[in-house]
Specification:
With 166 residues, the chain is of the alpha/beta class. The chain has one domain (42-165). The protein is built from 5 helices and 7 strands, in the order βαβαβαβαβαββ. The chain has a 7-stranded mixed beta sheet with strand order 1-2-3-4-5-6-7, with helices on one face. Strand 3 (53-56), helix 3 (60-63) and strand 4 (79-83) form a beta-alpha-beta unit. This is F-box domain-containing protein.
Length: 166
Amino acid sequence: MTHTRFPNLECLALFNESTPASLALISANRSIKRLFCRNSPYDIVNIAPQLVELHILPDLQTLCSSSPQSPLPFPSLRHLFLNMTSPGHGVRVEGFEMLVRTRCLPVGHPRSLAKHSSQVLSSLTVVLPVNPASRVATKQVIHGLHSFGGHSSVLCQENYALDVAN
């Protein structure tokens, strides 16, 4: 089943941990445009470059190009959903800032690191845990989105959304 090809498969949801079988399934089906998974972007960056929508655990460094000469991972990506509610999947402010600068700000923005307008995300959704210990981090993310401008949403576990717009 792992090497089975589904030529019309456009959306795949895998909620198991990353396994060789799940990675082989993703790799064998280049028709997948929307992927919901618990993998790290590092696991799939080289096997699914065609993704347009990605719902994933955070590993922001993988989503950002490290140098101007290197190609941007997931060059067709337009919609990114980061689930930061799992323990051990936090994001440092520097990593989040790099994501915003490389994938969210328009090319003409003075702080943008995007090389082409086609690389800028249409939507970024960040799901944050809601508990007293994470309130400072939540405020930092919201402040970071405000400082860069634009429009994104921050979702919290208790099913309410904070709409962030300048």
